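Posting for a labmate who doesn't have an account.
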Amino acid sequence: MSLAARKIRLIMQLRQAGVADTAVLRAIEQTPREHFVPEAFADQAYEATTLPIGHGQTLSAPDVVARMTQALRPDTRAKVLEVGSGSGYQAAVLARLSRRVYTVERDRTLLAGAQQRWQDLGLHNITAQAGDGWRGWPGQAPFARIIVTAAAAEIPARLVDQLAEGGVLVVPVGARNQVQELLRITRDATGATHEASLGPVRFVPLIQDDPGGQPGRAAGPSGPSLA
């Protein structure tokens, strides 16, 4: 089966799985997933599975990416923060749905590879830096949307603080090596936050390089795992 046929099959599977946002489906269809995995795994790019991207990290299964993106409630006027660039795939999808994407990755080698892929695809509305994902990106806050692609042991307070009024944060929360809970956190006009569970997932942990709250040189999340 050709890559084009596999992509069509994937979109149909996502629809059957409850991904109904046509803009999200279109962004996934337009983003060449095979470009974000090692060449040896290109023929599996549109399978319903996680794939290795090197450095002990993985690219989440397509349905997880689609579910999280839909839960984020994309808006073409929105400024988005992604915590955990990985191979760059999630940011590439978000770039087609948002005004600008800011993304933080702790692994500089992964980040360099992601930046090259974005450049190859002509995605010029993505800004990236190496850093501690727990800290977010204070200099660019507030963000209308924030997405975290690794599991936090608890809801990251600093990220909630960087959420704009009316904003949405999607984050997996739970202990390492256990099933976690995918949460959507929204901030209303009064500044109050509200949580909604989107079901169980399984991600690698969000690594915090400055657990004492001291400024760190670099950090951020590991890549996403299967859900």
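Reply:
Got it, the structure tokens are right above this. DSSP finds six helices and nine strands in the chain.
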